[in-house]
Amino acid sequence: MAANDAGAGLSIEELRQRYEIEQRKRLRSDGMAQWSELSEELDRDPFVEPGFTRAPVVEEVTAVIVGGGFAGMLTAIDLGRHGITDVRIIEKAGDFGGTWYWNRYPGCMCDVESFVYLPLLEEIGFMPSEHYASAPEIFEYSKLLARTFDLYPKALFQTDVTDAAWDEEAMRWTVSTSRDDQISAKFLVLAGGILHKAKLPGIPGIEDFEGKAFHTSRWDYDYTGGGPTEPMDKLADKRVAIIGTGATAVQVVPQVARAAKELFVFQRTPGAVGVRNQQPTDPEWFASLKPGWQRERIINFTQAVTGSQPEVDLVSDGWTELMWVDTQLGGDTEEEVAELERIDFEAMEGIRRRVDEIVEDPDTAARLKPYWGKHCKRVCFHDDYLPAFNRPNVHLVDTEGRGVDRITPAGLVVDGVEYPVDLIIYASGFEVTTDLHQRLGFDPTGVDGVALSERWAQGAHTLHGVLASGFPNMLLISLVQGGFGTNFSHLLSESAKHVAAIMEACIEQGIDVIEAEPVAEDEWLSVLHKVGFRGARYFQACTPSFYNSEQQAIDQRAARNLTYTGSLLDYVGYLERWREAPDFTGVRLRRSGDPA
Ligand code: NDP
Fold this sequence. Notes:
CATH class of the largest domain: Alpha Beta
Radius of gyration: 24 Å
Largest sheet: 7 strands, mixed
Bound molecules: NADPH dihydro-nicotinamide-adenine-dinucleotide phosphate
CATH topology of the largest domain: FAD/NAD(P)-binding domain
CATH superfamily of the largest domain: FAD/NAD(P)-binding domain
């Protein structure tokens, strides 16, 4: 059946209707319940030698940081600058790097310009080799940061936190791990990552498949051959399926297309793919940068993508030119609404035209066009994804919004047709809006032994997404009631700076316990609601995704588990004003000697 490609030249009203049709195709009653967890076997870390053991650690430290990605590393670096070095970083993986440790799939790179993405470049004096750094380079850079700031002696790798309990009398956290460590800490920092818990589509029969299968964040190079930068030489006689067409799949597809005998891309919602224009970096330009350049560039990028339109657009790429978001989204007046909608449609029309320009088969081109608003999902930028569909060995299997119907021992079934394959690659993403304790893999217990899952059973309670009532001296870096930004590392750097500053101030001022006041949490929630309300109409019209919890009906919990959807710079402003004010407000403080 030929796809109905009515996109070209449609009026705004017609496009609006088309978006609605596409949204309806993709809506499903099981919402977030459609996903399943990775089995222990699929979740296993393929990048470490099996059999690692070590003696349990029993100690007292100032802070336990859960997570060795950028958030955890930057927190430890900041604390170190203030002389607080008795810090433990607990990390499930075998090294630092977080998402850049796990995601070693071929073609993996950062879609945000490396000069604004990689933290502390100016201080380290490191020049990334390309404008959009590859995952191997970012992983190496993470290790360089860890060596430069002496983080390795502080790390416990291949270790899962199994429990963290607040001891009211000692005014400390007791942290237990999968390697029988017992660590007592004044502060507990939860920097467990935003996109770290991989998920699988709950397709019937998924466990019956008899071929090879893995998630993109657990790439098995023993099976595919090659490596992140080497061609995969063992796929030449293999039929491969990729499930997904999100930011990960867009990077993987061209690589597998080159290596495999046949590649079947199973699409539910077409991704949006703009121009990448990857370039090597210019050492002369890098040498000419003036002190303070990186901070200036990071802020300039965030201004540009949040619609503040700085005088000069320093990065000037697809994000800043096309995908900028007016953080008012919905607009204030009907004219503003209409204008923003027109801009949005135009940007997406450009993306759709690009498909026609590149993809030779008109039916395939029609099916690859995304019909959703530019902020409904993460737009991708890539120059090899669309051309891959011109190869005779690459086949698009469009599931028209439904997803793969069934998996059999031999392959995948869509519309009654079975596609036999040797390998299934799940590019099916990560948990983002599920309960925090589920993503962390443990459930901290706070005052009176109340678990986080219990306290937040009807949704989160935090001040700025950082401090939480009932959980003294616990500091969060997550999206739950926290900020959000195109450049995640800008968000993580600012969050890390904030949590480190809180700990440093407590130590300097002899504060033993800091805990958010419920009334301040309510005030913060009303800020989140006020900002979120403006974009509500826009997001309602979106195709389902993890941005909107699969368009599941908004219940009381979801109404609390929000992120700050305004500009990241505004969110950072809230944090800065709060910490620069003379006294902490909205928190309970206790000093030794205070009555309990
Ligand atoms: P996503 O959640 O964005 O994509 C998952 C894909 O799997 C979607 O295309 C989804 O379809 C598809 N899918 C799910 N279930 C089924 C099914 N039953 N049948 C067919 N298809 C199915 O995950 P990604 O890993 O691609 O990206 C996650 C995030 O990671 C990104 O948004 C981005 O923030 C980050 N990322 C960043 C990169 C960077 O360069 N900075 C690179 C890669 C990822 P549908 O769209 O219909 O839900």
